[in-house]
Structures are given as C-alpha cells and as structure tokens.
Amino acid sequence: MFQKEDSWLFHKKHVVKTQQFYQQHGKKTIVLARFVPIVRTFAPIVAGLGAMHYRTFMFYNLIGGLVWTFGITLLGFFLGKTLPAEQVDKYLLPIIGLIIVVSLLPSIIHLIQEYRGSKK
Prior knowledge:
- This protein has 120 residues and is mostly helical.
- The chain has one domain.
- It contains four helices and no strands.
- The radius of gyration is 18 Å and the shape is elongated.
C-alpha cells in the first residue's frame, strides 16, 4: 500500500502529517478520543499509522479508558442520587445533549484554532 507515492487509499503526505501530529499531540489525542464516539474507533488505527510506540499508546489508552469508565459511572451515580426518579425523563435529553457537546468541544476548538492559524 505504501510502495507507491500515492496509492488509491493513502497518500504519503497524509501519513507524514499524521506522524507529525501524533508526535506532537498523540498522548492527549488517545485520552480524549475515548470521549468522542467516532474518533474513538479510528484513533488506534491512526496512532499505528503515525508510528506511535505501542507502550505509549497502551498507557494513554488505559488512562483514557479509566477516566471514561469511572467518570461516566460516577456521573450516573451522582445524577441518580440528585435527580428524583419521576423527573429523570425530563432531564435525560438535556444531559445527553450536554455530554455530546462536551465530547465534541475539544475537536471543535482544535478545528477553530487550525482555521485561524491557516488564515495568517
């Protein structure tokens, strides 16, 4: 697949950019990827393409997994303690919306910063 300069699926310039990105932001990307549903699926593949060291990937993937697991569990526990059972339906959709917004926020901020940087 990487024998040619540009193959059907990959372009070498994108692989080089990915490697540079993972050298600079790889650790936090792996942790934050746990909180963004689609990114969570592809982050390990991109980390491999970016030549991230396996031990580094596993360490930060475990950190992200622990933060995600305990964070969501504790959030559910405290929300269950705080909200009356008959009002859970009233607050469920706003809470899900907030979780989605907070999950996407790092990506949105990064895109805005990248856009502003390209205008200079």
